[in-house]
Amino acid sequence: MTTPSIGRPHPAGQHPPSGEPLDEVDRRILAALIEDARMTNKQLAEMVGIAPSTALMRTRALSERGIITGFEAKVDLAAVGRSVQALISVRLRAHDRDQIDAFTARVPQLAGVLATFHTSGAVDYLLHIAVGSTEELRDWVLDNLATDPVVGHTETTLVFERIPGPGPLPA
Amino acid sequence: MTTPSIGRPHPAGQHPPSGEPLDEVDRRILAALIEDARMTNKQLAEMVGIAPSTALMRTRALSERGIITGFEAKVDLAAVGRSVQALISVRLRAHDRDQIDAFTARVPQLAGVLATFHTSGAVDYLLHIAVGSTEELRDWVLDNLATDPVVGHTETTLVFERIPGPGPLPA
DNA sequence: GATGAAAAGCTTTAAGC
DNA sequence: GCTTAAAGCTTTTCATC
């Protein structure tokens, strides 16, 4: 299980991924669509070695089972005016549940946030953000974190480069 | 500029994103394809308010200019047997350029690595990985990092949850 | 640079194995 | 669960604005 439903409900409209294990064909479909989500169904079928109608059915089933969670275009950050990336570790001060929930609802949706990691250990959250300049970075932290009373401590680290990995499929 | 070409060549087959600024139509195309990379070109055209032939031309141009860097399917990590995520901060010991390059070539491509952040500050790299269990996590760190002589220190933090952000487009 | 029309190609459904 | 075939859409090209 990923996130046991203790205390908080599941996000609306999402069923947990069905327990059926993936067969080789499903894994090849995932691999192909991770590589190029915009390939045609016919190309996909050929790549995987099945009929187009089968490819379509399988792909649909993977989406309906929640195994494929979406298809997204990746964009060059510099081209959209966000050439400065940073990782910001955040320790919260209070451990009042409502305040923490307010932080968790607000911060991950702020403009420039690429991902928020809720972590164990000394740091509570790690924010991966992208902004236009180091001046904007300073202002971002001041405006969005430093002024929040629930935030105890932050530490900002510049990211020189983000290197994508080989992805989540078994090697 | 994103990564000045000092010392190392540009990755093969990539031209830097052309300096032409994005107009409103381009930004709406990006927003739509970030939201759903598999929508048809016709849907995209309608959503953006242009003719299908124009949508196709613009989308192609965005890819050719390197502004769209790819289209990828997102998969549920638990469904592919990787329900445990971790962030591993890595400090290197030696500052010998060849050893660092060997590390940088090897580690980001290891099975389970979702992303590698090359960072400024006290930590040199932060690895975001996904594995099947905490036992696998322990073994992963031992096998891939602890035994590498160039690695000085690592610190592993469990990720309870990774919350996707609103993405990189200006709000 | 954007559009509309026509040809080529793709997706989708349903019936059959 | 897979395949085939046919109808309906979509993509793509290109002449035109």
SSE blueprint and pairings:
The structure is a homodimer of 171-residue chains.
Chain A: H1 24-35, H2 41-48, H3 52-64, E1 68-75, E2 84-92, H4 97-106, E3 113-119, E4 125-131, H5 134-146, E5 151-164
Antiparallel strand pairs in A: 2-4, 2-5, 3-4
Helix pairs in contact in A: 1-2, 2-3
Chain A binds a DNA duplex (17 and 17 nucleotides) through residues 40-42, 50-54, 56-57.
Q: How would you describe what is shown here?
A:
Two copies of one chain form a homodimer. The first copy, chain A, contains five helices and five strands; from the N terminus they run H-H-H-E-E-H-E-E-H-E. Chain A has helices at residues 24-35, 41-48, 52-64, 97-106, 134-146; strands at 68-75, 84-92, 113-119, 125-131, 151-164. In chain A, a hairpin with a 5-residue loop joins strand 3 (113-119) and strand 4. Chain A is elongated and about 55 Å long. Mean pLDDT of chain A is 89; it is low at 1-15. Chains A and B meet through helix 1, strand 1, strand 3, strand 4 and strand 5 of A and helix 1, strand 1, strand 3, strand 4 and strand 5 of B.
